[in-house]
C-alpha cells in the first residue's frame, strides 16, 4: 500500500513539472548572470531549495546589499514554510524525527499543496501511506529542480530573452493556490493577501509579504469563525 501511495503522489505532481522546469532554468540563468559560478549556483539551489527565496537573495546581492540583509529577506519570504509545516503536522507529525527533518528539507509549495489536498480528500489514508505519498510528490519535483537549475547555469545566456521564462513563477503559484480556494474564508484571505501585498510593497527586507500573509490569515480566520457562529445560531434556532 505504501508503494502505491508513493507512486500516486508521483503522478499527482506531474502537472507542476511544466512550471518547475522554466522556473529552475531561469534561476540557473539569472544566478550565472549575477556572477555566481556553477558550484555556487548548485550549492544555493540544493541547500535552499526554495525558488522565491533564492531569487530574493540573488536580487539583493546583485544590488550589493549586505549578506545579512539578503539572508534575512530570503528567510522572511520563506517563512510561509513554517505555516505549511504546521498545517501538515496533523497528517505526518507522527513520523520519526529523521524522517520529519527530511520532509522539512524537501518542503516546497507544490508538495504542500498537492499533499494537503489529498490528505483532506482521503482521510482514510494510513500514517505510512501519508508519508509515502509526500515523498512520492517530492521524488518527481527535486530531480527536475536540481537538473534544470544545472542546465540553466550551464547554458546561461544562450537562452533567448524572447522566451520570457519569468512567467513560470506566477503561473506556478496560481496553479498551487487556485485548487485550495474552496470556501468564502479561503477566497477572502486570498483577496486580502493580494491587496495587502501591494499596499505593503514598500516594506523592507521582504517583510511586506509576511505582513500581508498575517493580515490575510486573520481575515480568513475571522470569516471562518463568523460562518461557524452563524451556522450554530441556525442550528440552535432550528432545534428550538
TrEMBL record:
Membrane topology (UniProt) = Multi-pass membrane protein
Coiled-coil boundaries:
none
Q: Name one GO cellular component term.
A: plasma membrane
A single GO BP annotation from the record? L-valine transmembrane transport
What transmembrane ranges does the database entry give?
A: 12-32, 38-61, 68-89, 131-155, 161-180, 209-227
Q: Does the keyword Membrane apply?
A: yes
Main subcellular localisation: membrane
Q: Where in the cell is it found?
A: Cell membrane
Q: Which UniProt keywords apply?
A: Cell membrane, Membrane, Transmembrane, Transmembrane helix, Transport
Record InterPro entries: Brnchd-chn_aa_trnsp_permease (IPR011606)
**Family, similarity comment:** Belongs to the AzlC family.
Q: What is the protein named?
A: Predicted branched-chain amino acid permease (Azaleucine resistance)
* Provenance organism: Alloyangia pacifica
